[in-house]
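Notes from hallway chat w/ T.B., transcribed later so I don't forget. T.B. wanted the structure written out for a chain they're using in a teaching module, and asked if we could keep both sequence and structure tokens in one place. Agreed to drop them here.
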Amino acid sequence: MTASGLPRRFGRSRLVRSVAVAGVAAVALPLFGATAASAAPATPAAATTSAVGTVTAYPDNLDGWIRESLTVMAQHGIPGSYDSIHRNILRESSGNPQAINLWDSNAIAGTPSKGLLQVIDPTFRAYHVPGTAFDPFDPVANITAACNYAADRYGSIDNVFGAY
């Protein structure tokens, strides 16, 4: 429904209705000559090898970053749930992996908070988890390091309901 509460009408054109239903996926595919075998996925995916050797692909978006981080966390015994990670990310960075806080006490002291869960560099270095990038702006590394810190300090990211 639109903001006014009335459903949109796309007329009688089947192509227009098909594109409207397909949404973003239609934009990612060429209009002519594309087949399922030749069409590229709309969202790039990261791949992680699990402990049993299978490769899992994750979409390159907030959902994929959280799920990949949860896989790494499970491999390292770090507790945390999807919902708690998601809640904290939305509060800290609104889901922007490039977020940087240049105004709080950490920033004034020269160590601004960075990334999805707003981790400062010393905390990121201390709680970095092997198998993730050594970059506080990398979404999976940031989530995993922050959850590792929260587990050490609060028992789990599940126990964090405000700035930490």
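Follow-up for T.B.: Residues 1-43 have pLDDT under 50 and may be disordered. Might be a good example for the class.
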